[in-house]
Each structure stands twice: as structure tokens, then as C-alpha cells.
Predict the 3D structure of the following.
Amino acid sequence: GLALGTLASKECRLLQQALVRRHDYHRGIHDARRSCRRLRSLLVFITASSDSQQVSKADKALRRLTHSFAGLRDAYVGVRTARRLMAAHTATLTLGLIHQLEERSDMFLSDALKQDPDWQHRRNEAMRVTKAIAALDWQAVAPQLAKEVLKQSITRMKKAHRKAMEQRTDEAFHRWRRRARQLRYQLEFLRKARDISGAKKIHAQRYDSRIKRLSLIIDRLGWRQDFQ
């Protein structure tokens, strides 16, 4: 539990660093959203052992922060995906369209920065979340509890996978990707926590192989989502 708390503090610092990045706003947005998701995956471990109300507040704040960048990220990914498609389908996508998408993305970013210069409001929110997460009782997360949380995440991911195969809808595939991504984050954190706490490394290879398989699934589903 203390190791997970240490990793949560480190992720909070990465979130704050992403929000002060100036030379590449889009990279900062991507890193900030990823840190928010990683922190939310960590909070699942402490939900069952701590003040659920405080955990819920932190989780909702991270979710709001992630969603506040959604339109900007979608517009940027639209440009990036269109460029990749243009390389393979020159007859259907033109540079004129790419330039229009770039202008649209730049306009969204400019408008967002006018409303929240240098992401000051978002940085303040991230600071409040950081303090809230640091105050949680991470020591209460015992190994057995972490194992149970991991089992639940695996069950949820398998259920989402099954439904995606049955329904074949964009929403179902997106849900499967979210579940798989959360599970991968949790495996990565537990892998690091075991190293920090000096646990035996007999399961390290199993962790690594699962993380690698999940990463492949997530990347494929991510391309499908970008394309859609």
C-alpha cells in the first residue's frame, strides 16, 4: 500500500509537469490525460479500504480534468489520423482537407487557452487532487486486497471483451479498450510496487507478459477508435 502511495505521488507530479508544458501543448494534453487515467486506476485499490467519499471526490475531479481536454485531443488526433490515412489513400484525402483539420485543431486550442490561460484553472484543480490523494490511507491497501481488486478488473475486462464481440459496436469496443487500459495500468503499478517493497520476483515474468499482451490489444483498439 505504501508503495502504491509513493507511485501515486509520482504520478501526481507527472500530471502537474504535463500541465505546465509550453513548447508542445498537445503533448502536454496527452500526458495529462494519461496521468489522470493512471491515477484513477490507482484509486480503485484504495476504494475498499479508505474513506470512499474522499476517494470518489478525487476520482470525479480526475475524470472532469480528463474530459476537459477531450475535444482538443479529438481534434488533434483527427489531424494525425487523417495524415496517416492520406499516405495510404491519396485519392480520397487531400492536403486541403488536412489543412482545414489543422486550422480547426488550432482554433480549438486557441479558444481553450483564452478561457483558461496556461491551464491555470486546471493546474489548480490538479493541485487540489494531489493533496487529496496524498491524504488517503494508502497503508490500508494490503496485498490480498490489491489481488482482489486486480481480479475484479480482469473480470470486468473479460466481460467488456465478450460484449464487444457480441455487439460489434463502436461503444462496446471503446468500453473494452477502457477496461483493458485500466487493467494494464494496474498491472504496471503492482509490478513496480512489488519491486519497491522488495517482494520476490517470481511473478515478474507473468506480469510483463500480460502487460505486453494488453498493450497490443489496446493499440489495435486505439487505432480502430481513431479511424472511426
Summary: The chain has a mean pLDDT of 92. Residues 170-196 form the longest helix (27 residues).
